[in-house]
Predict the 3D structure of the following.
Amino acid sequence: MFAPVYLDYNATTPLEPAVLEAMLPWLSQQFGNASSRHEYGRAARRAIDEARSKVASAIGAHSSEVVFTSGGSEANNLFIKGAAACMKPGLLAVSAIEHPCVIKPSEQLVRRGWRLQKLAVDSNGRVDAQNYQTVLTQKPKLVSVMIANNETGVLQDIETLAAQARATGAWFHTDAVQAVGKVAVDFRALNAAGVHALTLSAHKIGGPKGAAALVLDKRVELEPLIAGGGHERGLRSGTENVAAIVGFGVACELAVQQLATAAPHLTALRGLLEKGLRAMEATLFSASAERLPNTVYFALPKVDGETLVGQLDRAGFALASGAACSSANPEPSHVLRAMGVAPELARGAVRISLGSASTVGQVNEFLNTLQITLSKLQRLTAIAI
């Protein structure tokens, strides 16, 4: 079977073999409901408790702070809508480059009397310090800024932003879905600075789809999105997906173990990629900002991103023209628009995101194929003109 080279790890990651092995018993003979009082149920509950401890340990949290959800989107919605439901409407501030699962629920709150302020970013995609200070003078009740952007890979100084927001009394949330497993994430240090909630997801770190968590300071009151049997401290009712949660725990454990070797490997590959792209006169977005070690976001002169991705897919390389979760939207990336990138350049944007299985050989092969594909597209453009 044809298997293209995978260069889209920010969209999702392959399941780690050790994760699959840990999950298999809970997909067959270990089928108990964790709420049941008999041994089948007690075994499932023990497995969930063990996984919760592993997830917490990976980010320096306490197991009692981990609330399991079905995905990062649900966790982000749980914080934003859940916290807002426990307050009188006021100002909600989120960065203009947040994932849609933060921006969309924030926009929904406007219809419930909330005011929404999208925090400006500079040309590199970093939160603009002056604009942020201006917004803080309006005393927002809720603030959400992601640690690492899913398109550009840009890292924010979350500790500083949270400390500044704490002085206003705001609850501060950060989406860490893209950060965990690629850079060190310490919830205890972030919490001390002023972060009250953090989101992470299994399928971004070699775990299964369908498992994620909201890590929550227990002083924060949330109204659950899903009411029912009172699961997850009453914050997320529904029979737990034991197999996925078990896999999530193992994936977190592996991510921490592999971080020290993964980061230098990915950084070296990113450097090789960027050198080759610059030789083709590519624009590298956010190149001067601190970024995830695995992410390169670029555009080539007068080349449509969707067209290029399609050509490269047929040539055997799987990558993205933007965030996978918003790929149905033909408009230029909202992240690049917020950064002030011209629409014609933004339409050419292509994202490469590397993983632990990526190699120097794959990167060199990709660059050679890209050069051939680029030459072909440029010839077609010249003929059309």
Remarks:
- The radius of gyration is 21 Å.
- The chain has twelve helices and twelve strands.
